[in-house]
Design goal:
Number of helices: 12
CATH topology of the largest domain: Phosphatidylinositol 3-kinase Catalytic Subunit, Chain A, Domain 5
Shape: globular
Number of strands: 8
Number of domains: 2
Structural class: alpha+beta
Strand order of the largest sheet: 2-1-3-5-4
CATH class of the largest domain: Mainly Alpha
Distance between the termini: 54 Å
Helix content: 25-40%
Length: about 325
């Protein structure tokens, strides 16, 4: 059994279960046991679990299961039952480096985005199998209070990219300006959401999420208007694979001049993001305010890493990677 010293949602110190704040955010203040009474590994390749995996219309190599909370417990949703949560255990692909640390990595990265930078994210936490394995849990933001599902489309669909016309790796095709153009076209309050989108791209660069592809950004209907959906699937991919700086093969944009730093090193710096931000319509004072937040490693990031459920080796690696990304970002272009 794993020892719990920090809230498995907020990472607040001094809790052996979900803190009141974490419980309110994730479970509407219900008292939920963070330890599952089933072991996902034991269900591997069984009909029930495979059926459950295919009931979620999300893509990716990581297994995902629909879940509900009932009588103080988290369980897999049954066929035909509306799930309010998604469970993501460690991937079964043993070729991934440190694969069992992936749930803790995603949880930590999501908490940093939310707590340190104020990025709107899907509510999330960790739960644990009885053998101590980590399982990431996230609350579905597309499920409304009445149980209805809000219309939502990822940007591969919005832009019109698919496997039939764009090949097997269609979700990695294009550049981030393609998403920005789609936000401007489809979102009435596009200037607000453009800032949110820009900061999310910057956050992913600094925190080494090399898998921020078209399907990891979405629009969701809120009231009468489509808005940029809360961030999801944020993870430091460099802990597990040798990933690129950005998830889209076209980079930020094909319509901006690369910095000298980018030309010489192959890595983006602040000037590249300045030019991209101006290109997509962010006003300079607002742009400067966002960029300034990423010029140094915040103490709160270090604290959250320390409180996270990563092992000590991975905690050190996580901070080393982020510090390296910040050192790239702050380089001055000639």
């Amino acid at each position: 059994m794993i020892e719990i010293k920090y809230c498995p949602s907020t990472l607040m110190e001094g809790f052996t279960t979900y803190s009141p704040k974490g419980s309110k955010m994730l479970f509407d203040s219900k008292n939920i046991n963070p330890v599952l009474d089933f072991d996902i590994d034991k269900f591997r390749n069984t009909v029930d679990i495979m059926d459950a995996m295919y009931r979620i219309s999300v893509s990716g190599v990581q297994e995902k299961f629909p879940a509900v909370v009932e009588k103080g417990k988290i369980r897999i949703a049954q066929d035909g039952e509306r799930s309010a949560y998604i469970l993501k255990p460690a991937p079964w692909d043993e070729t991934l480096q440190n694969r069992k640390q992936i749930p803790a990595n995603e949880h930590l990265t999501m908490q940093i985005a939310s707590q340190v930078y104020g990025i709107r994210t899907a509510d999330n936490g960790l739960c644990f199998t009885q053998s101590g394995q980590l399982v990431y849990i996230t609350k579905r933001f597309d499920i409304q209070s009445d149980g209805a599902k809000a219309p939502m489309e990822d940007f591969a669909t919005v832009i019109g990219r698919n496997e039939q016309t764009d090949g097997l790796h269609f979700k990695y095709r294009g550049c981030y300006e393609d998403i920005a153009n789609a936000i401007r076209k489809n979102v009435a309050a596009w200037m607000v959401d453009m800032e949110r989108f820009f900061e999310l791209v910057l956050f992913n660069y600094i925190y080494a999420n090399g898998d921020d592809h078209l399907k990891n950004f979405s629009l969701i209907l809120e009231g009468q208007d489509y808005r940029l959906a809360p961030a999801y699937d944020l993870i430091n991919t460099n802990l597990h694979v040798n990933s690129d700086d950005l998830g889209l093969d076209g980079g930020l944009s094909s319509n901006i001049e690369k910095s000298d730093v980018m030309d010489k090193t192959g890595h983006l710096c602040r000037l590249d993001f300045e030019r991209f931000g101006e290109r997509i319509g962010i006003v300079k004072p607002r742009l400067r305010k966002i960029l300034d937040k990423y010029m140094q490693l915040p103490d709160d990031t270090v604290r959250l890493v320390d409180h996270s459920f990563l092992n000590n080796k991975m905690k050190r690696a996580y901070l080393r990677i982020v510090r390296e990304r910040i050192s790239r970002f702050v380089r001055i272009s000639e």
